[in-house]
Amino acid sequence: MDLGEFEAAKFDAKFDDCLAAAFVRRGRPSVAEAEALSGRILDASWDVLLTAGFEGFTFDRVARHAHIGKATIYSRFPGKRELMRALLARRIVIRSDFFKSAGHDLAVEDAFCLRAANTMKGLFSPDGALMERLIDWLEQETGEGQPMRAQAYRDAIESIGESLADSCRLGARASNGVEPAFAARLWIEGLIGHAKLAHTEGASSPDEIERWAADYTRFYFAGLRAMVAG
Predict the structure, then answer these.
(1) 3-state secondary structure of 29
(2) What is the C-alpha separation between 66 and 179, in angstroms, rounded?
(3) pTM of the predicted model, to two decimals?
(4) Phi, psi of 177, rounded to the nearest 5 degrees
(5) Over the chain (230 residues), what is each successive 10-residue block's mean pLDDT?
(6) How far apart (Å, rounded) are the C-alpha atoms in residues 68 and 72?
(7) What is the pLDDT of residue 100?
């Protein structure tokens, strides 16, 4: 251990002693406080990953970024795998909530157009690229990356299907209806397929994304109306 590591270890020990003393004085933290601290650790972990990458990711850096002791991180996440698993779950929820909240006060087609554009921009963003790397990392280390992606995909189908059923008079295999889950799956697969193609062709500027989102939404809902009417 060099001098810098020794000083950092002393700082962590002092910080955790102070934290423990504070808990003794005021009792154990509430559930809300514990969840907030876990969220703070995970948010700091995401920032460290964005700036340092997986190669430069350490609990020491997370602790410094979150302004907490390293022992506090270990008390909640015993190792890197556990932290990364919780981090991916948190980022999936954050992204899902963002996409679902966009356009909630708009007409259904306008809302879906906005969500299509936001989804595309999210996939091309540094956060989107890092999520893909995190899924790959977890898949290699624990085999959990793809199952977590699949669950997020199923949740998205359910959420989108509910929105379509409420606004487009879709039926559950009705003679004049379209199964909501099927319609939702087509919507998502169209987005993902275009994202892969656009990435390959370099057609991922904000203007191009918004233009494609408007065209795709108009085409999709025209087809959906024709199927329901038929």
Answers:
(1) coil
(2) 46
(3) 0.79
(4) -125, 175
(5) 44 44 50 86 97 95 95 94 96 89 86 93 91 96 95 93 78 60 93 85 81 95 83
(6) 7
(7) 82
- What is the biggest distance separating any 2 CA atoms in the chain, rounded to whole angstroms? 76
Tokens standing for residue 45: 């972990």
Q: What is the pLDDT of residue 115?
A: 93
Total Cβ atoms within 10 A of residue 218: 12
Residue holding tokens 């907030």? 36
Question: CA–CA separation, 216 vs 112, rounded Å?
Answer: 10
Residues with Cβ within 8 Å of 73's Cβ and at least 6 positions away in sequence, in order, are 41, 59, 62, 63, 66, 83
Q: Which residue has the tokens 């379509």?
A: 164
Q: In terms of residues, how long is the chain?
A: 230
What pLDDT does residue 206 have?
Answer: 86
In 3D space, the residue among 163, 166, 156, 167 whose CA is nearest the CA of residue 190 turns out to be 156
The position carrying tokens 């002393």 is 10
Amino acid, res. 153: Y
Check residue 11 and report its DSSP letter.
H
CA dihedral over 180, 170, 168, 194, signed as positive or negative: positive
Distance CA(157)–CA(174), nearest Å, equals 19
Quick one: 30 exposed, middle or buried, by C-beta within 10 A (0-12, 13-18, 19+)?
Answer: exposed
